[in-house]
Amino acid sequence: MSTRVVVTDPDTGIGGGELVVEVLGAGPYSVEWEWGGRLATGRRELRLRVRHDGARPSAGTVRVSRSVPAADPWWLIPGLFYGENRPAACARVFPRFETGADRPQEMVSGRWGFRADRAATPAVLVWGDTGGAGLIADEESPLGTTGLAFEHDAGRATIALLFPYREYPVTYYGSALALPPSEAAHVWQPGESHVLTLATFPLPADRHAYAPVLREDRDLRLAAAPVEPWQDVATAADIAAEGLYRWHYDPDPGVLLETVGFDREVSGGDGERVDRQAMHVGWVSGIPWAAALLEHGLRTDRPEHVAAAERVIDFICANLSPSGTFWGTWYRSSGWSQSWSHVKDALHARTLGEATLFLLRALRHRPNPAWEAAARSNIGAMLARQRPDGNLGALHHAATGEVLSWSGASGLTWVAALAEQGDPACLRAAERAGEYYASFVHDEFLYGAPEDVDLAPTSEDGYAAVLAYMALHRRTGEERWLDLARRAADWTLTFRYTYNVRFGPRTPLGVYGFATRGADQASPSNQHLHAYGLVCTAELIELSEALGDPYYAERAQETLACFRQFLPAADGDLNAYRGMITERYYQTDCFQPKGMYLTLSHAWSAGVLLLACEQVLARVPLAAEP
C-alpha cells in the first residue's frame, strides 16, 4: 500500500515535467507542496510537507521521481555513476547499468539505488531521447540519509530521490562480492509530519550540461560547508616532505616505499611486516613524488632531501626495461617487474607517462645526463609505438614493446609528457594523441588511468586529461586544447565533494571534524575520498587564468585546503607519526565503516600534497599565502 500524488511544475522552462511523490508504506499520508523561484540553470526548489494521517505507527519511505523517454539513457550520479558505469570489458566488478538486465550477483542491473554520501553531489541526472532532467537534495533529511536511484523500463528512464535511502538490487562494499540490499527506515507516528526539500532542473541533449548545474549547486552549498585547514601551506609542505623522507625513503637501494604503517609496533619488527616493500616508478610512488621532494629540498635548503630525491630518480633511471621504457614496479624480494596487471609482462601507459612527465620536470631543477638519457629512451619507445590515429596504447610488453592493449584513455598522461618535452616531433605526436583521446572527453566517459581498477572510470582519468590538454594549450596557444581542458576539468570536478559529509560523533573523522568539501571520490569502483586531485593544482589555476574565470582555481584551492586537515604535525597525532598521511578517508560504507580512515601512510599521499604546496608557493609569496 502506498500514497501517490503527481506534482506538476507550472514553469514550462523546467520542461513541463511531472514529479511523482509516493510514500511507500501503509498510510494514509497527505502531501502538500510549494515551488521556489527559478534559478539561472532552470533549477527550482520544491518543498514537500508530508504528514502521516494513519491511526497506527507505520514505516514509510518518501520517493520523489521524474521520467523522460529514453531508448538508451545516460546516467550521472557525480562521483558514483557514469553512463553504463562499468564498460563490459572491464575486469573489475562494481555496479554496471545494462538495459533489461537483472543479474545482481554480477552487479549488472537496469535499476540501482544508492545512499547519498556515496555521491560527490547528492544528485541524480539522466539524458534521454531529446534531453533530460535532474533531481538534487542534501545528504541528510529529517528522515535520515537520502537515497539516489534510477531505473529504465519500457522506454522510460526514471530518476528518484528516496527519504530515507534504499540500496538495491545489492549493496556495493568495494569488492566483487555483492552484499544484500540495504535500507534505512523511518517509522512515522500518527500525525507526524516533516518538510523535505529538493530541487529539479531540465537538461538539454548535451551531456556536458551538468557543468553549470553542478557549479550553481556548489555555490549554493558553500556557506554551509566550511573547510578549516590545520596548517598553512608552507608548514604543510614541511610536514609532507618529512613524511616522505623520514618514513618512505629507504636509501638501500634508493626507493620511496609505497606504504608505511602508522603503528610501528604492530607484529613487531618496527612495523616492517605491514610496510609495503615496493615502489612504482610513477603513480603510487616513484619519480613524481621524488621530484616534489627535490623541489622542496632546493627551496628550503635541505640537502638531505635533495640527495634522497636524486637517489630515487637515479635508481629508477638506471634500470630500464628491455623495451626501453621504465619498469612498472620494484619489489625488494624480486627486483624490477611489471605493473599491477593481470596481463603477463604488461607495463601500464599511465604509470610510465607520469614517471616520464615528472622526470622532465625534475630535469628543469637538476640537469642530469643519465636522467636525460632515460627520458629520451622512454619517449622514443612511445613515439615508435603510437598508432596512426594517435592512440598511444594502454599496456606495453616489458621485453618486446608490443602493445598488448589499446583500450581506454590511459595514454593521456603521455600527451602532457610529449608536449612538455619540447621537440617538434614530440609535439606533433602529442597533438595526434590529444585528438584521439578528445572523444573520451566529449563522450563524458574517461576510463583506464589507474592500474588497479582496469577500465573503470576514475577521477584520475580526469586529472590526466587536465594535465594533457593544458600542456597542449601551453605549447600551442590553441583554443581547441583550452576548451578540452575546460571540459575535462568540469568532468573531473564531478568527483569533488561539494558538501561536508556528516560523520558519527565518535568516529575518527567525526571527532576531528574532517570537512569533506574539496576531497575527491577516487572512483565508482573505489568509493573513498583521496587527495590525488592535487596533482593538477597548477593546471587548474592556469586554466582559470587562461579563461579569465576564477572558478577552477577556487576548486584547486579548496582541495588544498581540505588536505591540510588531518595532518600529523607531531608524533602521536592521529595515532600516527609526523608526516604520515593516509590514502583513504571513508565517507560512506565502502571498504570500512563510514567515518574511519586507513592507518597506512602512502608515499603518493605525502607526495601529492607536497607537490601542490610547492606549486602554490612558487606562485604566491609566503606573505600572501592562502
- How many helical elements? 14
Proportion of residues in helical segments: 25-40%
Beta-strand percentage range? 15-25%
**CATH classification, class level of the largest domain:** Mainly Alpha
Q: What summary fits the major beta sheet? A: 7 strands, antiparallel
InterPro entries: 6-hairpin_glycosidase_sf (IPR008928), 6hp_glycosidase-like_sf (IPR012341)
Question: Describe it for me?
Answer:
- It is built from 14 helices and 34 strands.
- It is an alpha+beta fold.
- The protein has two domains: 4-219, Beta-galactosidase, Chain A, domain 5, CATH 2.70.98; 233-618, Glycosyltransferase (Alpha/alpha barrel), CATH 1.50.10.10.
- The radius of gyration is 25 Å and the shape is globular.
How do you describe this structure in short?
With 626 residues, the chain is α+β, with helices and mostly antiparallel strands. The strands form eleven sheets. A seven-stranded antiparallel β-sheet has the order 3-4-22-14-13-7-8, with no helix packed on it. The longest helix is centred in the last third of the chain and has 19 residues, at 424-442.
Topology:
Blueprint: E1 2-8, E2 18-24, E3 29-38, E4 44-52, E5 58-59, E6 61-69, E7 74-77, E8 81-82, E9 96-97, E10 102-103, E11 108-109, E12 111-115, E13 123-127, E14 132-136, E15 140-141, E16 144-145, E17 147-153, E18 156-163, E19 166-167, E20 182-183, E21 187-188, E22 193-203, H1 210-221, H2 233-248, E23 249-250, E24 255-256, E25 259-261, E26 278-280, H3 287-300, H4 303-317, E27 329-331, E28 335-337, E29 346-348, H5 349-365, H6 369-385, E30 395-397, E31 403-405, H7 412-421, H8 424-442, H9 459-476, H10 479-493, H11 508-511, E32 520-521, E33 529-530, H12 537-547, H13 551-562, E34 600-602, H14 603-619
Parallel strand pairs: 9-11
Antiparallel strand pairs: 1-2, 2-6, 3-4, 4-22, 5-21, 6-18, 7-8, 7-13, 10-11, 12-17, 13-14, 14-22, 15-16, 17-18, 19-20, 23-24, 25-34, 26-27, 27-28, 29-30, 30-31, 32-33
Helix pairs in contact: 2-3, 2-14, 3-4, 3-5, 3-14, 5-6, 5-7, 7-8, 7-9, 8-9, 8-10, 9-10, 9-12, 10-12, 12-13
